């Protein structure tokens, strides 16, 4: 697994605009959650994570509430970060015969204007890589240009 294809970005909305920062790793979810908690804003903070061109995760901290979304539950078989996600989100581990499908809080971004149907459609699009899916999410939320600039996409 190469870190060159991993994406770890935190985004938060304050003073009427989005602010973005790269996170040190997409693999240490506990550290990511702590970093998001340190951003005390009205809209909370969101982590946009992509691992090894295989899947993406969204983590949102809003006050004391933590919401988590994983684009493909079956990635928990092959990726420690996805397995850690399943554990932290208190979800049942997938069965060997489970189909790839999103899991977690499907409406994680609904109050920001992106509902579960839009996120599910991105997950279902086999033509898109996780970085492209995250770019589409960032664009939909209003910080696509900043996201691409930060990551040199």
Q: How would you describe this protein?
A:
The protein is α+β, with helices and mostly antiparallel strands. The protein has one domain. The chain is built from 5 helices and 6 strands; from the N terminus they run E-E-H-E-E-E-H-E-H-H-H. Strand 3 (45-51) and strand 4 (55-62) form a beta hairpin. Helix 4 packs across helix 5. The longest helix is centred in the last third of the chain and has 12 residues, at 130-141. It is globular and about 45 Å long. 35% of the residues are buried.
Provide a brief overview of the structure.
This protein is an alpha+beta fold. It has helices at residues 29-37, 80-88, 116-124, 130-141, 144-151, and strands at 7-14, 17-22, 45-51, 55-62, 65-70, 103-104. Helix content is 31%, strand content 24%.
Strand portion, in percent? 15-25%
Q: What is the tally of helical segments?
A: 5
Count of the domains: 1
What is the 3D shape? globular
Number of strands: 6
Largest sheet: number of strands, sense, barrel closure: 6 strands, antiparallel
Structural class: alpha+beta
Low-confidence stretches: none
Bin the helical content.
Answer: 25-40%
With strands numbered from the N-terminus, the spatial order across the biggest sheet is 2-1-3-4-5-6
The run of helices and strands is EEHEEEHEHHH
Radius of gyration: 14 Å
- How far apart are the termini? 20 Å
């Amino acid at each position: 697994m190469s870190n060159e294809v991993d994406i770890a970005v935190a985004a938060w909305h304050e003073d009427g605009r989005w602010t973005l920062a790269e996170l040190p790793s997409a693999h240490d979810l506990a550290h990511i959650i702590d970093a998001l908690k340190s951003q005390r804003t009205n809209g909370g903070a969101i982590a946009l994570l992509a691992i090894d061109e295989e899947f993406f995760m969204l983590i949102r901290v809003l006050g004391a509430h933590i919401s988590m979304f994983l684009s493909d539950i079956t990635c928990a078989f092959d990726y420690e970060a996805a397995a850690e996600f399943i554990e932290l989100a208190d979800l049942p581990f997938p069965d060997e015969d489970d189909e790839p499908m999103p899991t977690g809080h499907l409406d994680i971004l609904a109050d920001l204007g992106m509902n579960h149907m839009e996120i599910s459609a991105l997950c279902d699009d086999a033509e898109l890589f996780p970085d492209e899916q995250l770019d589409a999410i960032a664009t939909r939320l209003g910080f696509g240009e900043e996201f691409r600039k930060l990551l040199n996409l």
